[in-house]
């Protein structure tokens, strides 16, 4: 049986002054309709729980620091959808939230993500929206664009690119 193959990932972060919320979408090519068949037989809940636990393991290995303090991200929900209702195009959607924190008003805040470097096997986009402030600078080995309002930074990752290492977003809260 052929396994499903990830073909694209989208990640959207929303950063408030007290929390980070992430929506994460994994798009797959599944020619054998494994996910569709699991859903049709009712066996999908066990599979989704395994996937959730596996992803949570990897989230826990990475370090997400806010002003040098580790922030825990926890998967709140996982859902299975099918792109354009095509049973060969499953999409896994994860809703992930941070523990509460408080950004500082009097200095630049630093969001620092450290992950073990690895070669990515699919293209990806990761977008960080700063809801309560503005982006002052970004440090990353990945191509990125900051919007003109300096409230969103979007990273563009190509298939075969080495990702991980250190990425930093520097932001200042609005007065």
Question: Layout of helices and strands, plus pairs?
Answer:
Blueprint: E1 5-15, E2 20-29, H1 34-41, H2 44-61, E3 63-66, E4 69-70, E5 73-82, E6 90-98, E7 109-119, E8 124-130, E9 133-139, E10 143-146, E11 152-157, E12 162-173
Parallel strand pairs: 1-8
Antiparallel strand pairs: 1-2, 2-6, 3-4, 3-7, 5-6, 7-12, 8-11, 9-12, 10-11
Instruction: Report, as a whole number of angstroms, the end-to-end distance.
Output: 57 Å
Find the count of extended strands (DSSP E, 2+ residues).
12
User: What number of domains?
Assistant: 1
Query: What structural class do helix, strand and pairing data support?
Result: mainly beta
The average pLDDT value, as a whole number, equals 95
Task: Tell me the strand percentage band.
Answer: over 45%
Q: Strand count, sense and closure of the main sheet?
A: 7 strands, mixed
Low-pLDDT stretches = none
Helix coverage percent: 10-25%
Spatial shape? elongated
- Helix/strand order: EEHHEEEEEEEEEE
What integer value in Å does the Rg equal? 17 Å
User: How are the strands of the biggest sheet laid out side by side?
Assistant: 5-6-2-1-8-11-10
